[in-house]
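INFO batch 0412 | record 1 of 1 | parsing
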Amino acid sequence: AQVPTSRGASPEWAETIADEHVRGVFLHLDKHGAITEPEVTKLLGSPRAFRRFSLDFDVHLEKLPFRVRIETGDGGKRYVKEGER
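INFO prediction complete | emitting tokens
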């Protein structure tokens, strides 16, 4: 499940995220306003990658120009974009 990205089209903050799959998750969140745990797992490629993403979440947050709220529901976590930082 590749996320199409055109070089140079990413916002500056996105370039600070080394992992292209993690970058894709936050670009999706930036564009659409929310992303679910199953969607994140699909973008990252595996449940193990999702667990690593969860552990490193606070580190990634520091690189973003917006805040992210995590909601927990029946389908797992849902990440919701909030206002600018």
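INFO post-check: Residues 39 and 49 are 12 Å apart (CA to CA).
INFO record closed
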